[in-house]
Amino acid sequence: MMCSLSILRIAPQIRVEDFGWKLKLQCFAIVLYTPCNDTKYASGELARLLTEAELPVVQLHRFASKGLSKGHENFTVISAGDDSETRTKVHSIFVDGRTSAPDLRCLLQLIDNFSPPLNPVRVVEFGGFDADDVRKAYSSKEQ
Question: Which terminus of the chain, N or C, has fewer Cβ atoms within 10 Å?
Fold first, then answer.
């Protein structure tokens, strides 16, 4: 199986101090596809870099996506931040849910005080966990 080590090539160029906490994030999470030992190692190195940059409470969790048996982990979630409630939600959505691409209804759990009526037929796409962007994306689809 051929695996890409692009994380190892990118990681030395990352300035973690400019990456997340200047944005005053409550929680920072990265979901990575890690199908082989090389990519698993690279994700561990990325978690180590985040820890060395003194991001609070860096955690690494591996999980097998649905359809694969447990013990054949092919995804990794790295999370950091002081907000344990949000980190727990991230873990529940990705690791316990065994998905790397949850639907909007799951991701809305990460936004405080936002509970729109959900229509299962409607699809809303957005990038990231910025509450304002999610509200705008959802509102634009309602119209």
Answer: C
The number of beta carbons lying within 10 Å of the beta carbon of residue 111 is: 16
Share of the chain above pLDDT 90, in %: 31
CB atoms inside a 10 Å sphere around CB 112 = 10
What is residue 122's predicted lDDT score, i.e. its pLDDT? 54
Could you tell me which of 81, 40, 82 has the C-alpha nearest to residue 61? Answer: 40
Token code pair at residue 101? 């691409």
Tokens 């054949």, residue? 72
CB atoms within 10 A of CB 86: 21
3-state helix, strand and coil shares in percent for the chain, rounded to the nearest 5:
45, 10, 45
Is the pLDDT assigned to residue 56 strictly greater than 50? yes
CA nearest neighbour of 58 among 33, 85, 81, 30:
81
Report how far apart, in Å, the C-alpha atoms of 61 and of each of 40, 53, 74 are. 11, 19, 11
What does the alpha-carbon distance between residue 36 and residue 53 come to, in Å, rounded to a whole number? Answer: 26
Average pLDDT of 130-137?
73
Contacts of 31 (CB under 8 A, 6+ apart): 75, 76, 77, 94, 100
